[in-house]
Amino acid sequence: MKYEIRRFQEKDAAEVSALIATTLRTTNSRDYSPEYIENDVRALQPESILERAGWTHFYVVCDGEKIVGCGAIGPFWGKTDESSLFTVFVLPDYQGQGIGRKIIQALEKDAYFLRAKRIEIPASITAAPFYRKMGYGYKNGVDTPDAEGLLRMEKFR
Q1: Is 107 among the domain residues?
Q2: DSSP state of 136
Q3: What is the pLDDT of residues 58-110, one digit of tens each?
Q4: Most CB atoms closer than 10 Å: which of 9, 19, 93, 115?
Q5: Residue 43 burial (CB < 10 Å; 0-12/13-18/19+)?
């Protein structure tokens, strides 16, 4: 299958929010409580997706007209030499087909990646093995979730 990767458009916000909710409730539910998942779902409604797209370079992956994956890269706390990956999700029915890899490859060609010496990811427990395959390691060697339930991962260039 041929998937198109393109920049996020405002009209994508509701579909991206629904994609994230489906993925969290299906894939991430094996590692997180229902309360944790629903808190994330509430935090990633279309309005917050639009806000995030305003300060990141946000991409979507399409199978025809259907958005099947997304990911964003932006500055790490306003720094010019560090960036962070955000909101990397693939619909459950499309996982394992190389779409996540395509998203990371697109993000790693983005100007925010190319300017950075270090890239950090606030990774879910669920996604950490994938990021390890993509060359990201645990920040400061810490491989246990922090108070937010996330693993801080990073890559140096």
Answers
A1: yes
A2: -
A3: 999 999 999 999 999 999 998 999 999 999 999 999 999 999 999 999 999 99
A4: 19
A5: exposed
